[in-house]
Amino acid sequence: MSMTIGLAGKPNAGKSTFFKAATLADVEIANYPFTTINANKGVTYVRAVCPCTERDKRCGNCQDGIRYVPIEIIDVAGLVPDAHMGRGLGNTFLDELRQAQAIIHVIDASGGTDIEGNPVDIGEHDPLEDVNFLNREIAMWMTGILKKNWDKLSRKIRAEGMKMEQAVSDQLLGAGVNESQARQALLACKMPEECTQWTDEDMAKLCETIRAITKPTMIAANKIDVAPEENIKALEELDIMVVPTSAAAELALRSAAKNGIISYNPGDMDFEIISDKVNEAQKKGLQSLKEMITTLGTGGAGIQECINRAVFDLLELIVVYPVEDEGKWADKNDRMLPDAFLMKKGSTPHDLAYRVHTDIGDRFLYAVDGKTKMRLGEKHELKNGDVVKIVSTAK
Predict the structure, then answer these.
(1) Cα–Cα distance between 93 and 377 in angstroms, integer?
(2) Residues in domain OBG-type G (predicted)?
(3) Which run of H or E residues covers position 11?
(4) Which listed site, 200, 214, 352, 386, has its alpha carbon 20 to 30 Å from 93?
(5) Any alpha helices (H) in the chain, and if so which ranges?
(6) Does the predicted TM-score (pTM) go above 0.85?
């Protein structure tokens, strides 16, 4: 898997519960800061409608017509203000976060934890204070890396005529920044032409732009089931993607499904009790979960919605299905829709060919649309849900 989503935020906001609900991995969850010391890594899934629903036969690789495409998710140590200066577990947090292509910022929408992650009364802390500090910490962390030995590097740039985007990306390579992203940020910021004259403010502005490009972020408004109405309203008015969630409720749903108590797929709008051994107290608890799912309207308790929106909206990816038989939508072993690839919007059949295998990409001829049977050129723009046969001279 080449796709990694990071779970970030202050301690005790529910990141580890979110992670466990998304992966059903065995991780420690507790009501105190810094439960997570070392990053938890696991596999979760993006939910998409499987193309086999357009045919009479199911492919065997989906659940009731829903395809779950695996991605990596990482739950990093909790972040506190001034983490970029080494407070809390800041350096560990920031070093681990460089792996993520997008960030789900888990905040405590209930206001039941202070800025450091210590428990307080519900509604005592304003969750809006938690929204901005994460981005600032990441940008300041990048700024510190960029400023390191900058005087010496800037003189070298001037003397040797090194491209500015190459110099910036080389300096920020450890933060996961490539040359294309550095170029995009430099163009957006309109930095002073003479790099030896860049101020601290110039560098901070550049790194904030780089952060936005390399680490797009959304909000998981967690503990929404106990959040005061005014908190919910304030979060909904933010100019950023916000999804209401209850990681604890989602964990209960997925655990109940795993144990054969209910029929539920991650992201479903409802569930059915299938066990005849459910007592009255359990029925009451499950009824409360049903009511919350209906109220949220996101499918489940919001966890799957967060993952899907991070992948499809923040990162602008699509799901494409390569096949070898465009008629049967199968591979050479007659397996229907065996693979599902996440690709950037705007990707072409030639891009897909390289994802399948380097030799196939190098010897690409054309592609065939499995749905229309039309021939596709190498510059054709693929769409979400496309079924594609690649034709090449590769053996």
Answers:
(1) 44
(2) 3-265
(3) none
(4) 200
(5) 15-23, 90-97, 128-147, 150-160, 164-171, 179-189, 200-214, 229-236, 247-258, 280-296, 303-309, 349-356, 358-362
(6) yes
